Amino acid sequence: QQQLDAATRQSWQSQAAHKAELEQRAQMGEGLKSSNVWYGHAHALTWVQPELPPGFDGTSYADSGWCFVEASLSSVLKSSTRRVDIGKFTADKLFYPNVPMAIEECVAGRRPPVRSPSRVAELLESKTFFARADVATVAELYRRFFEAVAPWCPSLDLGGLGWGDAEVIELCGALPSFLRLTALDLARNAIGVEGA
User: Fold this and answer.
1) Distance, CA of 25 to CA of 18 (rounded, Å)
2) How many beta carbons lie within 10 A of that of residue 2, not counting itself?
3) Fewer Cβ close by (within 10 Å): the C or N end of the chain?
4) Helix, strand, or coil (residue 23)
5) What is the DSSP string of 155-193?
């Protein structure tokens, strides 16, 4: 009888754990459906850390599909001041005489160009995912966000990003979707003849 009770208790605990896991997965799925808003919102501050710790043995930031789409989402509407590379904010800057100035250094520099959903989906094919089914999931996250915001966006502040011709050519593939765009700032970039 004690063995039967123990087996019944273990079976019940296993079923309860399985039910909790299914609920967590469902909640995670609902959260993922909204993650495009977290990364893409023009006023949300996005922290990125493309430099991984020395000795890290895993997929690089540049090769990760999830990181790629998160970086792509945060590049559609944000000004450069809303996307912070915390890898640039080193421990010595914590005691910098002017911490806001140190943070400004972290927002200066590159970010991916705004890309069309079809271009993002194409580039995702070469990225690394734990599960290949994620490719379609993140491509859809980007597409939904891009198609919801691009037609209504009146301006893009893309100045001072260190962009060259390649980034501007990528941007040109996305610009037809920005139906209400009246201001485009590309100043302080290194755009040559090909990108002009």
Assistant:
1) 11
2) 6
3) N
4) helix
5) EEE-TTS---HHHHHHHHHHGGG-TT--EEE-TTS---T
Q: pTM for this one?
A: 0.77
- Which amino acid does the sequence have at 19? K
Total residue length of the chain:
196
Both tokens of residue 39?
Answer: 């990364």
Three-state secondary structure call for residue 89: coil
Pairing relation of β-strands 155-157 and 83-85? Answer: unpaired
Q: Which of 147, 154, 78, 151 is nearest to 112 (CA)?
A: 78
pLDDT tens string 136-193: 989 999 999 999 999 999 999 898 888 899 999 999 999 999 999 999 999 988 898 8
Q: What tokens were used for 191?
A: 């755009």
- Both structure tokens of 132: 């290949």
Rounded CA-CA distance 138/26 in Å is 17
Strands 183-185 and 83-85: unpaired
Query: Could you give the CA distance from residue 7 to residue 27 in angstroms, rounded to a whole number?
Result: 30
Find residue 46's DSSP bridge partners.
83
DSSP 65: H
Smallest CA-to-CA distance from 36 within 63, 74, 65, 64 is with 74
The alpha carbon dihedral of 119, 121, 122, 124 has a sign of positive
Q: With contact defined as beta carbons under 8 Å apart, do 73 and 114 qualify?
A: no
